[in-house]
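Dear H.,

Thanks for agreeing to be a second pair of eyes. The structure we're designing against is below in C-alpha cell form, covering all 292 positions.
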C-alpha cells in the first residue's frame, strides 16, 4: 500500500515550485490564483526572494502548502491508500485527499500562519530538539519544570522536540542533558508551536475551521494529535483544531500506517525531511519523493 506524506515548516527553500510553474499551465494557474487569494505575490518570494523573507511564518506556511498540493495535483497517478502530514502538512494532505478545496485549504493555512505569528509575538517562546533520550523521560522532565514546556513533536525514535517559554525550555534542556540527552538544540523558530502557548491561535483557527466546508477524504488520513486514521469529517475537524496546542505524533503515525499495510512512503512537497524520518521509524519501508 502506498502512503503519501506532506512536510511541514522548515522544508522551504528559495526556488521551490518554480519548475512546476514553468512546466505546467495548470500549476501556473493555481499559483496565480494563490497570489490573488493571499493578496500578495507569494510566487515572487518563493522563486526569487531571500531566505529571510521566506522564513516568515505568514509566507513559509502557504509556500510549503502550495508546493505540496500543486505537486500532488500534477502527479498523474496520484492514488493514495493513506495520507499524513507533519503539522502544517496535515492541511496539504487533506486537500490532496479531497477533504478540502484548494481555495479553502489555502485560506485556512494563511489564517493559521497569521494566528500563530500573533501568538508568538504575544508570548516570546521557543522550541528545542532533544536527541537520544526516551520519550517518557522527556515527558517526565517537562512535567517537573515549573513553567510551560511540553513534548511537541515526536519526529522519530531518539528525536523529540520540546516547546514552551524561553525559561521553561532552558530549564528542561539542562535537566535533559543531565538525564543523558546526547544534545539539546534550540531551533530557529518564532515561538512555541504545538504547546499550550498556542491557545489564542487555536481559538482563532477553530472558528475558521468550523465555518469551512469539509468532505470525506478519498482515503484515511492519519492525524497528528492521535496518530489514528480518520475519514469522518467531524473527527477530522476536531483533530485539526486540537493540533495547534497538541503534540505532533509523527513516529506513532508512521508506525500505525505500517501496521495498517503501508509499504511505500512518497514525500510530496519540498525537501526530503520526512523520507529521512520514515527510514528511522520504519527501516524496511520504501521511501521516495514525487517524480513527475
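And this is the sequence the design step returned. I haven't edited it by hand at all.
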Amino acid at each position: 500500500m502506498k502512503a503519501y506524506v506532506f512536510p511541514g515548516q522548515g522544508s522551504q527553500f528559495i526556488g521551490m515550485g518554480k519548475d512546476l510553474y514553468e512546466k505546467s499551465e495548470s500549476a501556473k494557474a493555481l499559483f496565480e490564483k494563490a497570489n490573488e487569494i493571499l493578496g500578495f505575490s507569494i510566487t515572487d518570494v518563493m522563486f526569487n526572494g531571500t531566505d529571510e523573507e521566506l522564513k516568515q511564518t505568514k509566507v513559509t506556511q502557504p509556500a510549503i502548502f502550495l508546493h505540496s498540493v500543486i505537486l500532488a495535483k500534477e502527479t498523474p497517478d496520484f492514488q493514495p491508500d493513506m495520507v499524513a502530514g507533519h503539522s502544517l502538512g496535515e492541511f496539504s494532505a487533506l486537500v490532496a485527499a479531497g477533504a478540502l478545496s484548494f481555495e479553502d485549504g489555502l485560506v485556512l493555512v494563511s489564517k493559521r500562519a497569521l494566528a500563530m505569528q500573533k501568538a508568538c509575538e504575544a508570548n516570546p517562546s521557543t522550541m528545542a530538539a532533544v536527541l537520544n533520550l526516551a520519550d517518557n523521560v522527556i515527558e517526565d522532565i517537562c512535567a517537573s519544570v515549573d513553567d510551560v514546556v511540553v513534548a511537541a513533536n515526536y519526529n522519530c525514535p531518539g528525536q523529540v522536540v520540546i516547546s514552551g517559554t524561553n525559561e521553561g525550555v532552558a530549564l528542561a534542556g539542562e535537566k535533559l542533558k543531565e538525564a543523558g540527552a546526547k544534545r539539546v538544540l534550540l531551533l530557529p523558530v518564532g515561538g512555541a508551536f504545538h504547546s499550550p502557548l498556542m491557545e489564542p491561535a487555536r481559538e482563532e483557527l477553530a472558528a475558521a475551521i468550523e465555518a469551512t466546508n469539509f468532505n470525506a477524504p478519498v482515503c484515511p488520513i492519519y492525524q497528528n494529535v492521535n496518530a489514528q486514521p480518520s475519514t469522518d469529517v467531524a473527527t477530522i475537524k476536531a483533530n485539526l483544531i486540537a493540533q495547534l496546542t497538541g503534540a505532533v505524533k509523527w513516529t506513532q503515525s508512521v508506525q500505525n500506517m505500517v501496521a495498517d499495510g503501508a509499504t511505500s512512503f512518497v514525500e510530496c512537497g519540498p525537501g526530503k525531511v520526512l523520507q529521512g524520518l520514515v527510514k528511522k521509524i520504519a527501516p524496511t519501508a520504501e521511501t521516495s519523493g514525487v517524480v513527475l
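Two observations from my side: The mean pLDDT is 96. Residues 89 and 231 are 17 Å apart (CA to CA).

Warmly,
E.
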